[in-house]
């Protein structure tokens, strides 16, 4: 019986435990490549059950069916070794199996339960928080971390990562001052902590502090950018700051040089690529041939139907490129998912389908229908996951659709919401000017 660096029990050799610690530390910082490190360990010690279980958990939380074969292989190996696993390792296997079976909620609670039993198990906290993120559970993004904090102290290895996770949860719950302080402290302690830097970026995005956000991310980039598997998302945030400051050329340059750097090889990258170009395309900016770099990633995933959040972003690419057949396939995929089992059925039924239909309506110029589909869903869009910053694309689309529909009252309402959040934004001011031009007096 061995333990990891924080005293959590493992049924492997001490040497294997040390190597697992190294791979997990990379995952905490989203540095390349923890899977390669685990594979190297398993090549030498194939009976390391926790190695297979961790590998399965990491692959599961990509929310990408492209990795399903690898996930199933890891699960099969872990389950063969389950009789020799301890209770903690068995719970890791169960969580990954539940996620693979489509029950994201049960998987997340299983990882959360591990953290309750072993509050110094930072990986369990991280995987549970990722589950909360994909489920759109803002409160749990915060509380999942808060419940283990009393069992940690500043000098424990990984404490800074825990602060970064807490910072993101605080931000998603609107506690911006505490979130920024925790995120900045985590980055100061470990400049390679891209998740903590990202938490601070979220604070500044939500507060409309585009100049501050761009400066902070640019200053900290030398720490989190090299060898990071998460850098594309942090640069996506910088691109959003560029758009909000009216620097469209800067946003496109970041798409070319940073956001697309990974070639959109995984769904999470393709989400950011589509979301960035959609914001620009909706505003009427010429994005050139850039959609041709994102759309193939979604074409390769047509029909997967594992996570409605992915499907809605695929729809953005197909609407912008005018691919009507692909749009119909996305709708059909969401309809099948909505009628099926698992967490994604609710996500597809309640949120994914109406949003996809609304985006399709926007694309064919039926802006009133776009508003009709999207507006009732926006308030419950957390049900299909993502962050406030990611789901903001819905309000963005509603502002433009209401104006293009010529609906003066709706445009006034949507723009008023935007100005209340980001009064100094050139994008918001542009919408406000267009809305004022079409305003009509209130009835007596």
UniProtKB/TrEMBL annotation:
Organism superkingdom: Bacteria
Keywords on record: Repeat, TPR repeat
PANTHER family on file: TETRATRICOPEPTIDE REPEAT PROTEIN 38
Family according to the record: Belongs to the TTC38 family.
Entry protein name: Tetratricopeptide repeat protein 38
């Amino acid at each position: 019986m061995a333990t990891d660096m924080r005293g959590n029990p493992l049924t492997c050799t001490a040497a294997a435990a040390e190597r697992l610690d190294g791979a997990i530390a990379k995952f905490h910082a989203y540095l390349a490549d923890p899977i390669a490190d685990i594979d190297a360990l398993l090549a030498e010690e194939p009976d390391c059950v926790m190695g297979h279980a961790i590998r399965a958990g990491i692959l599961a939380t990509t929310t990408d069916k492209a990795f399903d074969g690898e996930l199933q292989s890891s699960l099969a190996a872990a389950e063969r070794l389950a009789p020799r696993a301890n209770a903690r390792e068995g719970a890791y296997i169960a969580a990954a199996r539940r996620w693979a079976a489509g029950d994201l909620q049960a998987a997340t609670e299983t990882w959360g339960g591990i953290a309750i039993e072993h509050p110094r198990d930072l990986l369990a906290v991280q995987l549970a928080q990722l589950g909360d993120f994909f489920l759109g559970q803002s409160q749990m993004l915060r509380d999942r971390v808060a419940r283990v904090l009393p069992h940690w102290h500043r000098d424990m290895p990984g404490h800074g990562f825990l602060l970064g996770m807490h910072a993101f949860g605080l931000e998603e719950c609107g506690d911006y001052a505490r979130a920024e302080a925790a995120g900045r402290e985590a980055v100061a302690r470990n400049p390679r902590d891209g998740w903590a830097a990202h938490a601070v970026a979220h604070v500044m995005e939500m507060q409309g502090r585009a100049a501050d956000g761009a400066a902070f991310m640019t200053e900290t980039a030398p720490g989190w950018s090299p060898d990071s598997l998460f850098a594309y998302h942090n640069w996506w945030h910088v691109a959003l700051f560029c758009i909000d400051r009216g620097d469209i050329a800067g946003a496109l340059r970041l798409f070319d040089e940073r956001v697309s750097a990974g070639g959109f090889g995984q769904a999470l990258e393709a989400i950011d690529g589509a979301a960035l170009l959609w914001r620009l395309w909706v505003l009427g900016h010429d994005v050139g041939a850039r959609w041709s770099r994102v759309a193939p990633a979604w074409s390769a995933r047509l029909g997967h139907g594992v996570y409605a959040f992915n499907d809605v972003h695929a729809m953005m690419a197909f609407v912008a490129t005018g691919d009507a057949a692909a749009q119909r396939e996305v709708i059909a995929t969401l309809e099948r998912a909505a009628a099926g089992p698992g967490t994604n059925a609710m996500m597809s039924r309640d949120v994914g389908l109406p949003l996809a239909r609304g985006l399709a309506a926007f694309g064919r110029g039926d802006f009133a229908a776009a508003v009709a589909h999207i507006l009732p869903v926006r308030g419950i869009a957390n049900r299909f996951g993502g962050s406030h910053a990611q789901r903001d694309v819905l309000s963005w689309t509603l502002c433009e659709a209401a104006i293009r529909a010529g609906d003066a009252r709706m445009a006034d309402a949507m723009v008023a919401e935007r100005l209340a959040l980001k009064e100094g934004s050139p994008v918001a001011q542009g919408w406000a000017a267009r809305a004022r031009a079409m305003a009509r007096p209130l009835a007596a």
